[in-house]
Amino acid sequence: MLEWLRTYRKDYLAGDVGAGVVVAMMMIPQGMAYALVAGLPPVTGLYASIVPPLLYALLGTSSTQSVGPMAIVSLMTASALAPLAAPGSSLYATLAGQLAILAGVVLLACGLLRVGFLANFFSRPVMNGFTLGSSLTIALGQVDTLLGAAPPRWHAPSAALGLGAVAFLLLARRWLAPLLRRAGAPPAAADVGARLAPMLLVLASVALVALLRLDARGVHVIGAVPAGLPQLHLAQSGQHWLPLLKPALLIGFVSFLVAMSGAQALALKRAEKLHTDRELAALGAANVGSALSGGFPVTGSLSRSAVNFAAGANTQLAGVVTALLLAGALVLPTGWLALLPLPVLSATIIVAVLGMLEWHTLRTSWAYDRADALALLATAGGVLVLGVEGGVVLGLALSLGAMIWRESRPHMALLGRIPGTEHFRNVERHAVETDPRVLLLRVDAALFFGNVEAVNARIEDLLAAHPAARHLVLVLSAVNTIDTSALFGLLDLHQTLGQRGVQLHLAEVKGPVMDRLRASSLVEKLHGHIFLSTANAWDALTRTTHDCKQNPDVAG
Amino acid sequence: MLEWLRTYRKDYLAGDVGAGVVVAMMMIPQGMAYALVAGLPPVTGLYASIVPPLLYALLGTSSTQSVGPMAIVSLMTASALAPLAAPGSSLYATLAGQLAILAGVVLLACGLLRVGFLANFFSRPVMNGFTLGSSLTIALGQVDTLLGAAPPRWHAPSAALGLGAVAFLLLARRWLAPLLRRAGAPPAAADVGARLAPMLLVLASVALVALLRLDARGVHVIGAVPAGLPQLHLAQSGQHWLPLLKPALLIGFVSFLVAMSGAQALALKRAEKLHTDRELAALGAANVGSALSGGFPVTGSLSRSAVNFAAGANTQLAGVVTALLLAGALVLPTGWLALLPLPVLSATIIVAVLGMLEWHTLRTSWAYDRADALALLATAGGVLVLGVEGGVVLGLALSLGAMIWRESRPHMALLGRIPGTEHFRNVERHAVETDPRVLLLRVDAALFFGNVEAVNARIEDLLAAHPAARHLVLVLSAVNTIDTSALFGLLDLHQTLGQRGVQLHLAEVKGPVMDRLRASSLVEKLHGHIFLSTANAWDALTRTTHDCKQNPDVAG
């Protein structure tokens, strides 16, 4: 805890303060915007940006993680609360806090139980599909606010402001950094400076609304923002804990995935080591803290963390600086913020989430493994059609389904001897010697419940095709583990082969696999032998037979 | 379809007819008992034993599978219908049919989509835990009927009849076969004869009730059984299709698991080959047929199929004989059946499901892999506490969780050269040469989304412990597949190692893995080399360095 503080060096200070200021400038528009996505008053997004980063600084292990509101988690919050309360109602805000408490407790419990490995259930293409679907869902959800009315209608001043803001942000993303660089700024500073465009836009749009009295012309603005720090309290609605539990589990799961994938990418660049279980605890505490200070579910945001990293953050002091600046903004007069036009806030949301899209993962998967690419697209489609919770569940099912499918069809090869050598290779690829009485089968996969049937089916086919076979040698050189189901599969196989007059042998069993097998009854029951090498098996089993012949199919 | 009929031989006939008769004698008490478990009138259990085996005989691929009511599926039926209708009501019976239709459609769809591999999602210990929990749930559910009242109270005549029946059945199971054998019956015939004890008990108990007028003394009897064949029809309740869909998915899944695991065990003994997708279609058709003829969800029953096998069934003609005998029983006067006492039926249920218990799987798992044994116990507990649907979901989660957990911690070894050879072994187990500039890491598992993090973390540790390292060689001799997530992991690793001045190399890449990698950008981007063997990598990378030394830790 606070290891960064004990080892703090003076020369870290400039980088940390600078990065803290930059991230605070990003956090103000983002926090308000993501509160809007969650269906909450914009000021709650500022509340959720103060206590969570402080708690993360106390407990977390990443030097650059920026914890606070995040688009996808806000979307999940909105979809969890929609069936239970009306957005804008005080019950809705109460339930948002309750949801953050529960998500926090889930994360803390996972940290204590050390089950961080559960995050490994999501494959990367499926995670990408989930992000893709969520981004599009969020962007689509902002179109009405952007245009000031539901399409095909629009409210001209709102639409002008919203679309103008989108254009400004896209142009800024594309051209602001090069412009700053040409103006003499160092490249890193130019990149970071370009991330301040949303804050600039907020200030400019407030001025514009004030000058042109756009609010009187029907442009929606966020309205009075209560000044002062959030009160520490926990409003709660007793009968809603249970219905919030399932969404809280999903939000906890996704929060952790999102935070870890971002933090890990940055940690690798600096050879930092993250502690999974402490990260879980830190995110859990951040969520509980958010709930107690009037906020909603939060997590680490890759976009802010990356800016924090690029702006030179050395330690979590940067996060503390950000939190203090946000608190300062709330203590100062907030009256001017009332005129911030909602279409502009929608524009920042749309540009931010579309910036999360990347097509590289889809392109690479498509070329490398079509099944993974289809899982990506199905998950994205699932989020769009079934909603974000359905998308998570579908994504989980597809991740695991694709893996079981791949592993349930392992590569297997019938082996023969390359004449004059001790090498044994696939009879379909090489001109090899075989013996009709001795079948050598190599299985190229860990044996587990998912492929027991496939191995048995292949052996049935082999025995049907080789009625003279009296010995079956399983060559286990590529078998790294054998789980309990596969052990039972081997015991069954051993018994039925015995009834049919075929001896079962094993060869090239790896050390750790052999250690386990010794704890089972297979080793003592086995009527065949366990050979150190395939060559030993071949020599011992073909010695009694004299009808060795070249494999006729490939010998030519 | 009907392949067995086209190739039928006269000498099959005696075995088929004999087995068909024996199974029919088992089916009559079992069918009525499992209808009771499902919360339905006993006669529906007889209906569910006629059309399903006929359709299975038409479409199925197992010669000995006996399709009809089955304990666990009946329990799942009861738990699916309980929230929707009162047991005994006509809506309840209608919904039981609807559930069978949906389960049948699910199975047919799975057969058409060829997704039989999905059955591989359940590991064997988890399946055993599921059976264990379901059996105990069923047995506990029968205690009230067995005693004629809820414990601690009991109804003396009912309890005497029920407990007497349990004692008779247990004694018959233990002693009847040896007795028959001693009386001169051949062993196989004696074993089969002993399975007729429940039918004998039914007849004796009806006589007893009639003689002693036990029904007038408060012993519940099944009451009038409508004579005649079931009418082909489909009663339906439009608004209940949707709530039945999820239980139908689970029932379809479990039906298939139960039927396949039983049929496969028997098929192996006769070197028969089952066709997964045709089995799915046959079970689907059997369920739809059951629904249309007044029945409820059915599946293959291992206990009946094993008796069918032992009694000498050669083809599905045995199933046809069973179905015709059941139909015959319904055409004959059924008035006498009205006096069948419910406590006796409960006794047959309790003894049948307790007979499904086996502790061998638990014992073997406990010795072989504690995690699998705990998954077994957790699944059994889950069924008892959460109910059978919760148990299926928990079992799925545990099967997959245990696998991901196992695979997310793969065995990895840092390698060194055994001096004077081309062999490279684990530095922790062997006295080997190492080079501080060259790290050779062998990963003993397929690389996939579940272990990307573990591999990265190990590499981080290695680089921290060997600051002089300039080359990292991943030895992929045990890597059978690399999925898309792992490919991205390698690309990320490659980039971050490059930034830190460490070259990434690969060695001993398997053919199929290399084929896939060529479709990715890794091969062209790689700043290191792809070496055919670890020895090649060692020679090439250590040539430029002169500080080879013995590994000091183990060299002694």
What does this protein look like?
- The structure is a homodimer of 556-residue chains.
- Chain A is of the alpha/beta class and 556 residues long.
- Chain A has 2 domains: 10-404, no CATH class; 412-550, Transcription Regulator spoIIAA.
- Chain A has helices spanning 3-6, 13-37, 42-47, 51-59, 71-81, 90-113, 124-141, 143-147, 156-182, 187-194, 197-212, 241-269, 276-292, 302-310, 317-331, 342-355, 360-368, 370-386, 388-407, 452-465, 484-499, 511-518, 522-525, 534-542; strands at 67-68, 299-300, 412-417, 424-426, 433-434, 438-443, 471-475, 503-507, 530-531, 549-550.
- Chain A has a 6-stranded mixed beta sheet with strand order 4-3-6-7-8-9. In chain A, strands 1-2 form a two-stranded antiparallel sheet. In chain A, strands 5-10 form a two-stranded antiparallel sheet.
- In chain A, strand 3 (412-417) and strand 4 (424-426) form a beta hairpin.
- Chain A starts with a helix and ends in a 6-residue tail after the last strand.
- Chains A and B meet through helix 12, helix 17, helix 19, helix 20 and helix 21 of A and helix 12, helix 17, helix 19, helix 20 and helix 21 of B.
